[in-house]
Design a protein that fits this description.
It contains 15 helices and eleven strands. It has 414 residues and is α/β, with parallel strands linked by helices. The protein has a single domain, classed as Alpha-Beta Barrel (TIM Barrel).
Amino acid sequence: MPQFPNGFLWGAATAAHQVEGNNINSDLWVLEHVEPTLFAEPSLDACDHYRRYPKDIRMLAQLGFNTYRFSIEWARIEPERGHFSTAALDHYRRVLAACHENGITPMVTFYHFSSPRWFAAMGGWEKPAAGDLFVRYCGRAAKHLGDLMAFATTFNEPNLPMLLRWLPMSEIPIVKVKRMAKQAARAVGADQFGCFFLGDAKKLQEHMIAAHHRALEAMKSGPGKYPVGVSISLQDEQPVGPDSKRDRKCAEVYDPWLQAAGKSDFLGVQAYTRCRVGKKGDLAPEHGSELTQMGYEYWPEALEACLRYANARVRVPIYVTENGVSTEDDERRIEYIRRALDGVGRCLADGIDVRGYIHWSLMDNFEWIMGYRTKFGLVAVDRATQERTIKPSARYLGEIARHNRIANVAVGAA
């Protein structure tokens, strides 16, 4: 394969709630601890990244990467409505400084699924005032951090609630979801609990798209000059049968946010698998298909298909902000990366403006309702000791990053 373009970003990603630990002011912390809950286990200390970030960032750099995508936590920065924590903002300044000290380009996500518990208690993203509150938070954080940021995204996968609407109803435990939300509302002394995952998808989309554009401007009004975009979730949607609703699904789930990204500085594409769409909606993977720990079909070629779909609809630079596979078999992870990057190479050869590949995730972490059972990481984390163990896949992708090309990198390199 030819060399990737000069300046290509190679990195790995994390999200605050999934790695930092003890995010006690978060709405998700509440949901993890109510009874009944859909969460397999609580996040607790997670990967203790809030304290261990200097070594983790140094490890990333030593592996050969040049970029770290991470999120700042709204629930830490504004633990109570209107009260901002300078200590939390200073913490994230230190994280950004550690990136620069190690030659790492920081890409900051301002919202990666988790909200302050007070935000959920007031109704969350379904409320018209939500956008004002998010924009205020973005402006305050950007004022404190903007001079050290290289890239920023407002939201991580804000189209996910719309995507979940296409799942077969049999896969959604509606009764359990309602019970969990009711218990969470009681826990915070509210009439409702407006978590990102639980709200009305159409209202969320309307309010979050408007908030994205306003937050982008709020970020740019502060110090520093950096591009601001949005990262959206895409699947390789494949029609099954003449009456497939694939096109309707794409128009509903992806296109509104692609239009929003087209008015931004860049688009983040996040892709993991394909989905077969029939006349009634999403279908299960074909019998005998290789499945990941998440239940997704093992389909590295999804990334290329999603990049091509996005490129046909937006004319802004594209970064792969998430791509990876949940598996205990690291050889399958290496194979997944190789095939996914082959697809990126074909896109580049066809003139598609892809400027970076950021793997999900840097380390095995808290994977939402699945807990710690699913392993996406390039680095293993011992839950008892917090010891990090670099996997062969980390060295494989790190060598590609170091040389900016796939050639001469052996599968299974240690």
